[in-house]
Amino acid sequence: MTSAQELVEQMTSEIAGANIFLETTVSSLNRLSNGYSVVLSNGIAIACRAILIATGFHLFSAEKKEEYGYGVYNQVITNRDLEHWFNNGNDARIDGREMRKIGFVHCVGSRDLKAGNSQCSKVCCVTAIKQAIEMKEKFPDAEIYCFYMDLRLFGKKYEDFYINAQKDFGIHFIRGRVSEVGETIDGSLQVKAEDTLSGKPLKVTLDLLVLMAGMVCNPRTKEIAGMIHADIDTDGFLRSRNNIYNIMESDRPGIFLAGTCTGTKTVPETVAEARAAVLSIHNYLKK
Amino acid sequence: MRPDFHPFVIPFCAGMFFVLGYCFFGIFNIIFHLPRRDRRRFLVSLINPVTAWKNIRDIFLNCLIHVKLWKRNPLLGYMHSSIAFGWFMLIVLGHLEVFLYAPGHLSKFYYPIFFNFFVAKSEETIGGAVLFFLMDFFLLVVLSGITLAIIKRVRSLWFGMRRTTRPSVLDMVGMYSLWAIFPLRLLAEGFTAHISGGSFLIIPLNWMVRGFLGNEINMVPTWWAYSIALSVFMFVLPFTRYMHIPAEMLLIPLRNAGLCIRHPRKGFAKIQVLSCPGCGVCIDACPMSAKKANIKDTTVYLNRQIRRRNEKRIEEISDKCLMCGKCTAVCQVGVDGPVIRQAQRSLRKYALGKDYSAAVSPTPVGKAAVAYFAGCMTQLTPGISKAVESLLKKAGVDYTFIDREGGLCCGRPLMMAGRIKEARELMEKTREIILASECRTLLLSCPICYRIFKEEYDLEKEGIEVIHHSVYLYNLVQGGRLKPSRSDIHFVYHDPCELGRGSGIYEEPRKLLRTSAYLVEAAKNREESVCCSGSLGSLTLGFADRKELTEAALRNLTSDIPDAIATACPLCRSTFRRYSDIPVSDIAEVIDSRT
Ligand SMILES: Cc1cc2nc3c(=O)[nH]c(=O)nc-3n(C[C@H](O)[C@H](O)[C@H](O)COP(=O)(O)OP(=O)(O)OC[C@H]3O[C@@H](n4cnc5c(N)ncnc54)[C@H](O)[C@@H]3O)c2cc1C
Question: What's the confidence (pLDDT) of residue A59?
Answer without folding.
Answer: 95
